[in-house]
Amino acid sequence: MSLTYSNYLRLDELLDLQHPRSKPPEHDEMLFIVIHQVYELWFKLLLHELDKIKRDFVEGDLYGAIHTFKRARTVMKTLVGQLDILETMTPMSFSSFRDRLETASGFQSAQFRELEFALGYKRGDMDLAKLYGAASRGYAALQRRLDEPSVIDAFYVFLAARGAAIPPEVRSRDVRASCEPNVRVQAEILRIYKASPDAAILFELMTDFDEGLQEWRYRHVKLVERTIGNKKGTGGSLGVEFLKQSLFKPVFHDLWAIRHEL
Q1: Would 22 disulfide with which of 95, 97, 231, 258, CB 3.0-4.6 Å?
Q2: Is the pTM of this model over 0.85?
Q3: What's the CA angle centered on 116, arms 144 and 222, to 5 degrees?
Q4: pLDDT digits (tens, 9 = 90+) for 136-146
């Protein structure tokens, strides 16, 4: 069989993955399924790009990191924009099929949790085995992300290669813990920011990406709030209250901490 657009993209399989559960069918359930499947595909791409950024940092490839962060930032803005489509679904429309979700919940997205771990926001307090199942693909991926250096850890390697004095306690920190701001790292970033215009471009792109992630979190919280109010999430989470816990928490703390000194 010759290669075609359809079999290269495996479109028959892809387009057969949308199975609304409501009977009779509720019109907006198809939208709900498609949007979330598309989000998972974007998450997969972001993880792919973040892995490249880690390699770029470790190898000292500034321009590779710049190029890839531009793409990641643009994907992040696309994720935010797609919430506009989901917001065309009214609360009453969602309520018409919400009970069909049973215990399924966006809270259970292993790939989004992978994104957090890959960026350095590692939530070790979560019972991953209970949440995803110890035999699941998602659990295995999260354990790997938990045990490996994050983008920020690779960023420290990059900064050190450019002459930054990264404190020993930062370089040897437990990679299973969330990254925390460090005033000595901030001083080194500020020095490089002012001395190296090409590095400053990278730092701005990283800040843009972080802002996009925070914007997505905020828009997602407001979407959930306007759709289900203060109800608990279908997966048993606290719903809006759980989502608010991560609002306005940057992943690149040190880049935000120096803004007033630029």
Answers
A1: 97
A2: yes
A3: 150
A4: 999 999 999 99
